[in-house]
Amino acid sequence: MANKKLTLALYSGSVDKLTAAGVILGGAAAEDMDVEIFVLLQAAFAFKKENAMTNDRVAELTDKKDEFLAALKRLNTPHWTEAFKTAKEMTNVKIHICGFAGKVWNGFKLDDFIDLADDICGIGEYIASAETADVNLFI
Amino acid sequence: MLDVESLQTVKADKVIDARGTSCPGPLLAAKKAIGEISDGQTMEVLSADEGTRRDIPKWCEKKGYQYLGTLEESGYFRIFLKK
Prior knowledge:
- The complex is a heterodimer.
- Chain A has one domain: Hypothetical Protein Ychn, Chain: A (3-Layer(aba) Sandwich).
- Chain A is α/β, with parallel strands linked by helices.
- In chain A, strands 4-3-2-1-5 form a five-stranded parallel sheet, sandwiched between helices.
- The relative contact order of chain A is 0.26.
- In chain A, about 40% of the residues lie in helices and about 20% in strands.
- Chain B has a four-stranded mixed sheet.
- The chains are: A alpha/beta, B alpha+beta.
- The interface of A and B includes residues 27, 29, 75, 77 and 90 of A.
């Protein structure tokens, strides 16, 4: 039986939502789902090499940011890049950087982004992937 | 599923201690370890995560493994399954 497919439109560049995405990817990996991630606008900022490990912005409950980040440490929650990497090691995960999003943040070639990224693509690929996905998420 | 008394006598072929991780850590640890045991062998996953207690039975059902049951200890769970 073919693996089920998760397509993720990843828009957010904030660590709270990226961490949530990492948890969901872990669940998908446990079930051997095929995963396609499309890195859109603000997420492309977080995927830039110079930003991935230093960006600590949060999108929600911003007044609780310190408490949130401390809790992640206390609970041994891996950094989102680590969670994504683990998922890539355990199942078939492809990470596509939206070409337009890349340009917004001065990322013009694949090498401008962290090694997790597989290629730079157009939005047509996202639509094609979403059309055939069993689960389609926007984060 | 085994009853509590039977579960307490299970000597698992592999024991995974994932009490230091939160969801989905224990589930991923179980997935990694399942490849290291043979069909018919048993595995015990130690987890302090309530979500994992619910996830592993569902995961077993989807993957075709036999969920044997869970023992609740002080502050953690012992989750048993058979490959």
